[in-house]
Amino acid sequence: xxxxxxxxxxxxxxxxxxxxxxxxxxxxxxxxxxxxxxxxxxxxxxxxxxxxxxxxxxxxxxxxxxxxxxxxxxxxxxxxxxxxxxxxxxxxxxxxxxxxxxxxxxxxxxxxxxxxxxxxxxxxxxx
Length: 127
What we know:
This protein is of the alpha+beta class. The protein is 20% helix and 26% strand. The longest helix has 15 residues, at 98-112.
Protein backbone atom coordinates (compact mmCIF):
# COMPACT_ATOMS: atom_id res chain seq x y z
CA UNK A 1 0.00 0.00 0.00
CA UNK A 2 1.26 3.48 -0.80
CA UNK A 3 0.55 6.88 0.62
CA UNK A 4 0.83 10.19 -1.21
CA UNK A 5 2.92 12.99 0.29
CA UNK A 6 3.32 16.20 -1.73
CA UNK A 7 3.15 14.40 -5.07
CA UNK A 8 5.53 11.60 -4.03
CA UNK A 9 4.49 7.99 -3.51
CA UNK A 10 5.98 6.53 -0.33
CA UNK A 11 5.51 2.88 0.44
CA UNK A 12 4.16 2.44 3.95
CA UNK A 13 6.41 0.64 6.38
CA UNK A 14 6.93 -3.09 6.29
CA UNK A 15 5.96 -5.34 9.15
CA UNK A 16 8.49 -6.15 11.88
CA UNK A 17 10.65 -9.12 10.88
CA UNK A 18 13.97 -10.82 11.45
CA UNK A 19 16.72 -9.97 8.98
CA UNK A 20 17.92 -13.60 8.96
CA UNK A 21 16.71 -16.60 7.05
CA UNK A 22 16.16 -19.45 9.51
CA UNK A 23 19.03 -20.90 11.49
CA UNK A 24 21.58 -20.68 8.68
CA UNK A 25 22.47 -17.10 9.54
CA UNK A 26 22.07 -16.00 5.92
CA UNK A 27 20.31 -12.74 5.17
CA UNK A 28 16.58 -13.07 4.55
CA UNK A 29 15.37 -12.54 0.99
CA UNK A 30 13.70 -9.25 1.92
CA UNK A 31 17.08 -7.90 3.11
CA UNK A 32 18.76 -8.92 -0.16
CA UNK A 33 15.98 -7.10 -2.03
CA UNK A 34 16.95 -3.80 -0.35
CA UNK A 35 19.95 -3.51 -2.69
CA UNK A 36 19.72 -0.20 -4.56
CA UNK A 37 16.84 1.07 -2.40
CA UNK A 38 16.58 4.14 -0.16
CA UNK A 39 14.56 4.77 2.97
CA UNK A 40 14.52 4.44 6.75
CA UNK A 41 15.11 1.38 8.94
CA UNK A 42 14.05 0.85 12.54
CA UNK A 43 15.66 -1.77 14.79
CA UNK A 44 13.93 -3.01 17.96
CA UNK A 45 14.39 -5.77 20.53
CA UNK A 46 12.37 -8.86 19.60
CA UNK A 47 11.05 -9.61 23.07
CA UNK A 48 10.51 -6.25 24.73
CA UNK A 49 9.81 -4.29 21.51
CA UNK A 50 12.08 -1.51 22.80
CA UNK A 51 13.12 0.61 19.80
CA UNK A 52 16.91 0.63 19.68
CA UNK A 53 17.92 2.52 16.57
CA UNK A 54 16.59 4.49 13.60
CA UNK A 55 18.76 4.98 10.52
CA UNK A 56 18.45 5.95 6.88
CA UNK A 57 20.00 5.85 3.45
CA UNK A 58 19.13 8.36 0.76
CA UNK A 59 21.79 7.09 -1.67
CA UNK A 60 20.41 3.68 -2.63
CA UNK A 61 22.52 1.89 -0.02
CA UNK A 62 19.76 0.90 2.43
CA UNK A 63 20.87 -2.73 2.60
CA UNK A 64 24.54 -1.91 3.28
CA UNK A 65 23.66 0.82 5.75
CA UNK A 66 21.32 -1.44 7.73
CA UNK A 67 23.36 -4.65 7.79
CA UNK A 68 26.45 -2.95 9.19
CA UNK A 69 24.57 -2.84 12.51
CA UNK A 70 24.88 -6.63 12.60
CA UNK A 71 28.60 -6.80 11.81
CA UNK A 72 31.75 -5.50 13.46
CA UNK A 73 32.75 -2.16 11.96
CA UNK A 74 35.28 0.49 12.85
CA UNK A 75 36.25 3.96 11.89
CA UNK A 76 34.75 7.42 11.97
CA UNK A 77 31.31 6.21 10.91
CA UNK A 78 31.24 3.16 13.20
CA UNK A 79 28.19 2.68 15.35
CA UNK A 80 26.38 0.28 17.60
CA UNK A 81 25.96 -3.38 16.60
CA UNK A 82 23.25 -5.85 17.59
CA UNK A 83 23.23 -9.61 18.19
CA UNK A 84 21.60 -11.87 15.65
CA UNK A 85 18.30 -13.26 16.81
CA UNK A 86 17.69 -10.56 19.41
CA UNK A 87 16.20 -7.88 17.15
CA UNK A 88 13.60 -7.20 14.46
CA UNK A 89 13.68 -4.61 11.70
CA UNK A 90 11.03 -2.48 10.01
CA UNK A 91 11.68 -0.71 6.70
CA UNK A 92 10.11 2.42 5.23
CA UNK A 93 11.00 2.67 1.53
CA UNK A 94 11.07 6.11 -0.06
CA UNK A 95 12.30 7.77 -3.24
CA UNK A 96 15.96 8.83 -3.32
CA UNK A 97 15.31 12.32 -2.03
CA UNK A 98 17.56 13.39 0.81
CA UNK A 99 15.19 15.97 2.35
CA UNK A 100 12.22 13.58 2.27
CA UNK A 101 14.12 10.67 3.82
CA UNK A 102 15.63 12.96 6.44
CA UNK A 103 12.13 14.17 7.36
CA UNK A 104 10.86 10.58 7.70
CA UNK A 105 13.88 9.71 9.86
CA UNK A 106 13.39 12.76 12.08
CA UNK A 107 9.70 11.93 12.55
CA UNK A 108 10.64 8.37 13.58
CA UNK A 109 13.31 9.66 15.98
CA UNK A 110 10.85 12.09 17.55
CA UNK A 111 7.99 9.58 17.90
CA UNK A 112 9.96 6.43 18.78
CA UNK A 113 12.83 7.89 20.87
CA UNK A 114 15.26 5.05 20.11
CA UNK A 115 17.66 4.10 22.87
CA UNK A 116 20.90 4.05 20.86
CA UNK A 117 20.65 7.04 18.53
CA UNK A 118 22.89 9.93 19.43
CA UNK A 119 20.80 13.08 19.48
CA UNK A 120 21.90 16.55 20.37
CA UNK A 121 20.24 18.82 22.86
CA UNK A 122 19.78 22.57 23.02
CA UNK A 123 22.36 22.64 25.81
CA UNK A 124 25.00 21.57 23.27
CA UNK A 125 24.46 24.52 20.92
CA UNK A 126 27.62 26.73 21.14
CA UNK A 127 25.83 30.09 20.97
